[in-house]
Amino acid sequence: QGTKLELPLWLAKGLYNNKQKILSVELPTVYKESWRTVFSADANVVDLHKLGPYYYAFGSQMLNFDSPENAELAQTILQTFISRFRRIMDSSQNAFNEDTSALVARLDETERGLFQAGQKGLNDFQSWEMGQASQITASSLVQNYRKRKHSELDA
Amino acid sequence: MFLTDFRKEFYEVVVNQRVLLLVAADVDALCTCKILQALFHCDHVQYTLVPVSGWQELETAFLEHKDQFQYFVLINCGANIDLLDVLQSEEDAIFFVCDTHRPINLVNVYNETQIKLLVKQDDDLEIPAYDDVFREEEEEEEDSGHESDGSEPSGKRRRFEEDIMERTMKRRQRREWEARRQEILFDYEQYEYHGTSSAMVMFDLAWLMSKDLNDMLWWSIIGLTDQWVQDKITQMKYVTDVGTLQRHVSRHNHRNGDEENSLSIDCMRIAFEYDLCLALYQHWSLYESLCNTSYTSASFKLWSVQGQKKLQEFLADMGLPLKQVKQKFNSMDISLKENLREMIEESANKFGMKDLRVQTFSIHFGFKHKFLASDMVHAVAALMENTEKDDSGTDNFIKALDSLSRSNLDKLHQGLELAKKQLCAIQQTVASCICTNLVINQGPFLYCYLMEGTPDVKLFSKPMSLRLLSKYLLRSFICSTKNKRCRLLPMVMAAPMDLEQGTVIMVGIPPHTESSDKKNFFGRAFEKAAENTNSHILYNHFETSSKYAALFLCVFICLCVLCRCGEPVNLTTLPLQR
Amino acid sequence: MEASEVEFLAEQEPVTIIPNFSLDRIYLIGGDLGPFNPGLPVQVPLWLAINLKQRQKCRLIPPEWMDVEKLEQIREQERNEATFTPMPSPYYMEFTKLLLNYAADNIPKADEIRTLVKDTWDTRIAKLRLSADSFVRQQEAHARLDNLTLMEINTTGPFLTQALDHMYKLRTNLQPGGSAQSQDF
Asked: Where is the SWIM-type domain (chain B) (predicted)?
């Protein structure tokens, strides 16, 4: 009792869950008060990937442990996302045909997923505009339908 | 037979059929094929395209496909041989032959049912009259019938004498006719030469059907330019045909200056130019182009130290800084480029190069793409005879074909790079041949044999490259030699073709003179020589027959010494067994 | 949806052509076409028009809005107004691309038209991004995006919906009960 241990999240969650509260959880530094002020000052300059590649997901999980700071934590995470949103959108929609590694270096994994989605939209459009769009194929539904008809005929 | 109405007698016949296109491997044929393909696309004509590089390939391709097709279109092959005999075709097969090779085989000319020639008739074909060459078979039977009459009773003696008179008359007539026939045939078949570019013929067809596009016009320009680059037609003929095409060009491209109705920059424009005949200079540096163009390098004698000095003098005379001349033409100072053509021409005149500018055409589209017709020819030819990779001939053919469409610029640029390499190799080979006295004066003709192991010898195992090389070599040799008689001689050149099979490729070209009519007797000469050795003929490369022959070369040389020849030549290639 | 699929939809739109051949009316599932008479304008779907054009069988008449003056007006309007202005055609981008690529020689001042349409497109996309940002910032629940075309929606759609999904999850965190749900993700 009273010892500090580093446990994986899944284990801590398991131990915490069955109402016995055999442990209390200390928030990781990133989610603490001091960093929260940093995020509220300017979330754009923070290297989220370095601080923890799963900032949003992990932060959301931390809310499971009823800490008194929960409300503020949730608010910070949301605000961080909102303030970083514009930058992700702009960079992902404008970086065509260039090396994006510098742009995504400071993004957390969720943000990277978003960035990829934005890039896909842009790339699709650009390749269409240059006439390199892929051939469209009939929907699988239509194809299957036709196949079934054939097999029925065969029978 | 010659077709008069190409549209009715050719296009409307094949338009609802499946057609087999047999296309020879030269640039003009490629362009013709492109035009025809475009027409076929418009009307959804089904066709199969088979590239053929020689007689043998033509025969195998025909054998392979003859069951599936009734209509065959032969492009730049087939006119100068007896097609039906060579291909052993069925009765119902119909051949449309669009070919520049002359003379046209007379059987082809007078076959009314199966052979249809798509050939411009205003070329002076000098076809002998039918009666002079062919005789009905019946007459011979009649003759033999008379002979059996000889055993008849004496009561008819008088008639018999008359008969004899008649028969001897007939025989004499026949002998005379035979002799005359030989003479006529000899005159007709003696020289090989080329007629109007097939691409132009095909473009005329497209124009007739008002389906002519700017792209097609450009292809026919390239086809014509190919004939000029390969030295297949006379300067006169070139200028006349350029004139014809120029009318089409101005008809198609009149919208350029029109402000209200201006065309998109992406659309292709063709422009008539009076441009420098420096090879690839717009894609190279001016310096390298000057060094590697046969005309300039021969005039300067660039293989010697003096020649190099002369080139420097020339550049100094133009007032162009070396740094500018040696960098990419595209990056040269705009101010220098403005009057470049006039400047170069003026200086060239001082240095005795009077024909540095030629009438030609160029296209531009987009903001940066500009190509001269002759550069396209070099690029496409280089792609077709690419020896760098071990691709099959068909692959290279398709690549070359693709490089002609505007959407495949990367292939064209690849071709331009290959063409540069080829020109450099030619120039180096020419220089080394002249410096080491490899060109031998055999009396009636000049002769040069590239040894195995010569650098770039592999490049010259293809007909077009070797032809270009020999043309350049002859030109340079004429400038270097002091012997005046040498300047009027034709040239034979040989290079190893396939080391494993021990075959040699040979080419004969006409003398390089201003008045040359580009007619070639080497075809017949090669044939004769092969006949005199007991060797067996292997037809190849569409230009003339050729043989595997022991001691062939020696015999050929002896023979040529015997038959004095001063007249010009076409291309002949032949593999030679040593 | 892919851009080429949007293009496929755009190809159903009618355009006017002047054919140079004659053909009786043809009956297709999508509707009857023709009859075609040389020199007489006729309306056909864009896909057929381009096919015929590529085969040298017709001349295309550009749609009325494909005109430098009109497009300039549209561009100015788009720049001046904060909301999206209605476009002359729901497939203006696809039309411009297809017509300029395959029938540039039938369209006067094609290059200027290309630039104008692209300008308009860029303005609209910038506007779209701006409104997306303010939408996220103010944590609105819904927004109205009138007059957007399919192609425009298609380029930013996947990104925007994914971002909004994500934001929704973060927002549920705010509610006290939300923490229980968040286990699942």
From this structure: 11-53
Per-position DSSP letters for A71-121, written without gaps between them: HHHHHHHHHHHHHHHHHHHHHHHH--SS--HHHHTT--HHHHHHHHHHHHH
With 80 as the cut, is the pLDDT of residue A1 above it?
no
pLDDT(B553) > 60: no
pLDDT for B139 beyond 60: no
H/E element, B250:
helix B235-252
- Residue identified by tokens 């070139």 is B238
> In the structure, what pLDDT confidence band is assigned to residue A99 with cuts at 50, 70 and 90?
confident
CA distance from start to end of chain A: 74
Residue A42 placed within a domain: yes
Answer yes or no: are the C-beta atoms of B372 and B359 closer than 8 Å. no
- Chain B positions touching C104 (Cβ under 8 A) are 263-264, 266-267
* Local structure of B456: helix, strand or coil: coil
The span from the CA of B339 to the CA of B334, in Å, is 10
- pLDDT for A154 equals 52
Beta-ladder partners of B447: B440, B492
Q: Which residue of B has its CA nearest to C107?
A: B263
- pLDDT value, residue B259: 56
Say how far apart CA B198 and CA B21 lie, in whole Å.
Answer: 14
Q: pLDDT band for position B319 (50/70/90)?
A: confident
Which residues, other chains included, contact C63 with Cβ-Cβ below 8 Å and sequence gap of 6+?
A: C15, C16, C88, C89, C95
Upstream peptide bond of C41 is cis (omega within 30 degrees of 0):
no
pLDDT in tens, B73-123: 999 888 888 888 888 888 888 899 988 887 888 888 888 888 888 888 766
pLDDT band at A19 (very low <50, low <70, confident <90, very high): low
What CATH number does the domain located at C3-170 have?
A: 1.20.58.1020
How far B381 CA sits from the closest chain C CA (Å)?
28
Does a structural domain hold residue A109? yes
Residues 6+ apart with CB under 8 A from C41: C16, C17, C18, C61
Which stretch of DSSP H or E encloses residue C27?
strand C26-28
Subunits in contact with chain C (3 or more CB pairs closer than 8 Å):
A, B
Q: What is the pLDDT of residue B518?
A: 62
Identify the CATH number of the domain in which residue A134 sits: 1.20.58.2050
Task: Output the six-digit token pair for B165.
Answer: 């008179």
Q: What is the pLDDT of residue B133?
A: 77
Q: Which of B41, B260, B266 sits opposite C104 (nearest CB)?
A: B266
- Identify the weakest region by mean pLDDT among A15-29, B267-281, B293-307, B477-491: A15-29
In single-letter form, the type of residue at position C28 comes to L
Residue B563 has pLDDT above 70, yes or no: no
Which of B35, B204, B207, B213 is CA-nearest to residue B122? B204
What is the value of pTM for the model shown? 0.80
Note whether residue A2 is domain-resident: no
Mutate to test the interface with C, among A31, A85, A142 (most CBs of C within 10 A): A85
CA distance C1 to chain B (A): 27
- Of C8, C159, C174, nearest to A117 by CB-CB distance is C159
Count the neighbouring beta carbons within 10 Å of the beta carbon of residue A68. 7
Q: Least CB-CB distance to C159: which of A118, A129, A131?
A: A118
Q: Please give the domain boundaries of chain B with CATH numbers for all domains.
A: 6-130 (3.90.1640.30), 266-424 (no CATH), 438-564 (3.10.310)
Band of the pLDDT at B574, cuts 50, 70, 90? very low
C142/C128 Cα distance (integer angstroms): 15
What residue segments make up the domains of chain C, in order of their start? 3-170
**Please, are residues B222 and B377 in contact by the beta-carbon 8 Å criterion?**
yes
Q: Compare C3 and B308 and report the one with higher pLDDT.
A: B308
